[in-house]
Amino acid sequence: MAGVVAIPVTPFAEDGSVAPDTYRILLRRLLDGGITTLTPNGNTGEFYALTPGERRLVTELTVEVAGDRAAILVGVGHDVPTAVASARHARDLGAQMVMVHQPVHPYVSQSGWVDYHRAIAEAVPELGVVPYLRNAQLTGARLAELADACPNVIGVKYAVPDAARFAAFARDAGLERFVWVAGLAEPYAPSYFSAGATGFTSGLVNVAPSVSLTMLEALRSGDYPTAMKVWEQIRRFEELRAANGSANNVTVVKEALASLGLCRREVRPPSRPLPESERAEVAAIAAGWSI
User: Fold this and answer.
1) Scanning 62, 130, 187, 276, which has its CA 20 to 30 A from the CA of 43?
2) Closest CA to 24 of 84, 86, 76, 67
3) Does residue 290 surpass a pLDDT of 90?
4) With contact defined as beta carbons under 8 Å apart, do 15 and 51 qualify?
5) What angle do CA 156, 161, 162 make, to 5 degrees?
6) DSSP of 110-174
7) Source organism's superkingdom (predicted)?
8) Quick one: which H or E segment has residue 238?
9) 233-256 per-position pLDDT tens digit
């Protein structure tokens, strides 16, 4: 996970179903581009809009295509039995890790957060378990408590938009104990790397793997001026994704892929396709990258 953790989109066919052949092409493009960690069923993959059968299909396709070319970090979540079933399915296919999506229950206590993740981690002791952390109220001590009980909790996708809070959380939990992944992608990667992250997630990587890898190499070498040049290059793309509470987070990525002829632009509700008036800007950004 100490690298670019790619979150593949889930392409849809004209009839609205998952498009397996297109998905295989997109995965091969990521692998050929140098990506070595894939997260099927992540948020950029429209996890919450997929049926249980579709989530299993996406996992199966990812393991099939990746083979031994990449580590597979499968997104799981919803209620505990559903998450456990998904994790065991991933394990049986040969995936190495699962990412546990943030609990969507409206009432999440800190001890309940530990119990939720512990139930999943204990069900698949053979797998590395990576909580997807978006709860700014959670303390680092709670993560340490979880890992004390479940040593297969090996990393964190940290997605609270506060670099100072991340720095404190990581040190309270154990900076050297986990792999810390900047879960808000390239826009936050430089600040989070300066505080101890060694990887970052990416949806943009679906469009331009070389752009994401250029930022990674700069951050690994401590070359922050170069990393920030990449940041400037992708800034507008990420602003479009983040607008209106990230309403178009997936939409903009699929629109860029559609402009390159790689997949259809359709997303599922509650997301929506990009308005015609904004499509040209996304296409121009994608065309301007070295892809």
Assistant:
1) 276
2) 67
3) no
4) no
5) 95
6) HHHHHHHHHHHHHH-TTSEEEEEE--TT--HHHHHHHHHH-TTB-EEEE--S-HHHHHHHHHHH-
7) Bacteria
8) helix 224-246
9) 999 999 999 999 999 999 999 999
